[in-house]
Amino acid sequence: MLTKTQRALMAALKLAITAGLLYYLLSGVDLSRLQEIVMTVSPATMVVAIALHIISYGVGGLRWWLLANNAGLALPFRAVLPSYYLGIFFNNFLPTGVGGDVVRILHLRRPRVSLRSLIASTVSDRLIGFIVVFATGLFSLAALEHVLLDDSTRVILFSLALMAIVSIWIFATDWFETLIARLTHRYRHTRVLKSILEIVTTLHGLRNRRGLIVGAVGLSLLIQSLIILCYYLLALGIGLDQPLLLFFAIIPVVIIATNIPISIGGLGVRECALVSLLVLSGVPPDAALGLSLVYLAVFWCASLPGLVVMMRPSTRRQHTDTSA
Questions:
Q1: Which of 49, 117, 155, 257 is the most buried (most CB within 10 A)?
Q2: Are 73 and 117 a contacting pair, CB within 8 Å?
């Protein structure tokens, strides 16, 4: 466990990295030209983009609700969505894109609600989402006619894909189930390890819920498509004429990069990743940075309902507690 001083130093370091990345991006462009690009986006385009993002969050909450019910929570959707949205809001300020997961778990945690089930559903929610993001980017890159990747990068990407496929296959085997059962029995008197193994057992049980997995994957594809469409719409709004498939290829990379825990809420990392990939695709740097800033405004606006949840603590108790 880190001490308070160490946590403060880590937060200060990440804040410095965030500021440094933003300074690096802004120092390399003409600020007056950047302002001109940003102001070309019409209010109607911004409203539609924000609406698309809010819908994607609602779909994300639905995915978590389905997985949570499968884990044994049996909570109504209206009880789960506020906690999910609060986690989205806190992702803007925490050092990593998954920090909000802890917030949503704690917000939904109540007497007679299983913490193990909450964690298991959140982990499965993240894993399925990550796999879909990775697969979307990989297949889109393969479909592009002119992919700006060298051979070594292609080998790394497809090696990672092969490793992921093998890992999922091993996880779904009866052998793995037997192994987890033996480990659970062996460490049944320990608290932390036993809880971890019970969570893994819950996750392993998803293999028998193919309909649920297909539904969660479908919802994940819808979420990614809505976010990518949001980027594409904003790109058109600032005058960028790039194919939609390009955004299906690069936005998953941006999403994955955002979860690298080196900045506050992925700020700076997300923008650097997007600008770099767009510039490699032939987009002018000022236009690429303009798109990243416009999207940032949309992202922040779309997450504001989470602030309402945070300011209304009574919403945490407005539903009847249900046994897990």
A1: 49
A2: yes
Rg (CA), the chain: 21
SS3 314: helix
Strand spans (E) along 113-226:
none
DSSP letter at 319 equals S
- Token pair 């880590």: residue: 10
CB 53 within 8 A of CB 226: yes
- Residues 319/313, Cβ–Cβ less than 8 Å: no
Residue type, 126: R
* Phi and psi based region of residue 266 (left: phi greater than 0; alpha: psi -120 to 50; beta: remaining): left
State both tokens at 247: 């955004």
CA dist 116 and 121 (Å) reads 9
Per-residue pLDDT of the chain (324 residues; tens, 9 = 90+): 567 787 778 778 888 888 898 888 888 888 898 999 999 999 999 999 999 999 999 999 999 999 988 877 888 898 899 999 999 888 877 665 557 888 888 888 776 777 888 888 898 998 899 999 988 888 887 777 665 566 676 677 778 778 878 888 888 888 888 888 888 888 888 888 888 888 888 888 888 888 999 999 999 999 999 999 999 999 999 999 889 999 998 999 899 888 887 888 888 889 999 999 999 888 999 999 999 999 999 999 999 888 888 777 644 444 444 433
Mention every residue, 6+ apart, whose C-beta is less than 8 A from residue 138.
Answer: 157, 158, 161
